[in-house]
Amino acid sequence: MKNTSEEYQLQVRGLEVGFNNKKNFTQILNGVSFNVQKGETLCIVGESGCGKSLTSLSIMGLLPESGGIRSGEIRFEGQDLTNQSMKEMSKIRGNEISMIFQEPMTSLNPVHTVGKQIAEAVRIHRNVTKKEAYERVVEMFELVGIPSPRERVHNYPHEMSGGMRQRVMIAMALACNPKLLIADEPTTALDVTIQAQILDLLNELKADLDMSIVMITHDLGVVSEMGDQVLVMYAGEVIEYTDSRSLFDNPKHPYTQGLIESIPKLQGKTEELPVIKGSVPNPDEMPSGCRFSTRCAFAKQECFVQSPEEVGTEDHPVRCWMYSGEWQKMTPFEGGESNDNSSSEAVDRQPIRD
């Protein structure tokens, strides 16, 4: 992207993250890089197992003991978070950078009232009294649209609906006026009506609080509603990165094309939805070449051997051999078990180009 580094609130560069076991180190994230400008929303898209949540946990400094950052930088307002101590990160986490987790019922403590949990977070980061902290909780409940906020602060999580619990999580995340909010699948367990309300609420709060958002999702409907920029991940790698409009108007990577084609259409005949056959490979069983090669309808012989570099334009990079100068010279795939998605119908399709 064309912006200078000074304009970015968050910069992630060459992030490599993995887990140690008794025998070796298994790498999950492979050279993940992206930027977030102040006041914009970046959507990170991909199937389960693509590394979206692990990216967010790396930013927050919440990797499990067996996990670790092998290399790369995570710069927030010029400060490299990978060099911060646990004590220093605890001052940033929940204060300057906050996170909404996937399932509020498992994120909230069932033995404490929701008000007590948020007030505790406020007192950790703000020099306020217990009464002032509770007043802040009431204020936040009003802000996120929870009715009867003074009564609701005394509720336990199980006494609230899924939509209300999600609003509590948003109130908790925003209680200290963070500059950056990371939302990990914030509407997954909600029905479509409540989902729309939550997305509208996040957009309103983003504008009101002059806040940036990193939205992690597998739902392209959420992307079209929220995203300024979109990062598509597959098997721990960034495979496409552009603005939201360009992604939907001109998706380049075969994986991105497959995701968009699988969206149900309101017009036309009712037919079987296209699917991307197969599944994301296990980290211990990554293909030797392009990580998407075993599921790709366009794959050539070299795709199974050599991993593609990032190509395309500065505003729309893509990790795929089809957009390199080598594509026409490559050997067509002869068939076999390696490519289980190579139906004649799929092979006849042509890559989408500018």
Automatic annotation (TrEMBL):
It is a peripheral membrane protein. The keyword ATP-binding applies. InterPro entries: AAA+_ATPase, ABC_Ni/Peptide_Import, ABC_transporter-like_ATP-bd, ABC_transporter-like_CS, Oligopep_ABC_C, P-loop_NTPase. One of its GO terms (biological process) is peptide transport. Residues 334-345 have a biased composition (Low complexity). Residues 331-354 are annotated as: Disordered. It comes from the Bacteria. GO terms for molecular function: ATP binding; ATP hydrolysis activity. One of its GO terms (cellular component) is plasma membrane. Residues 12-260 form the ABC transporter domain. Keywords: ATP-binding, Cell membrane, Membrane, Nucleotide-binding, Transport. It is found in: Cell membrane. Its main location: membrane. NCBIfam families: oligo_HPY. Belongs to the ABC transporter superfamily. This is Peptide ABC transporter ATP-binding protein. It comes from Alkalibacillus haloalkaliphilus. The lineage of its organism: Bacteria, Bacillati, Bacillota, Bacilli, Bacillales. The gene is oppD_2.
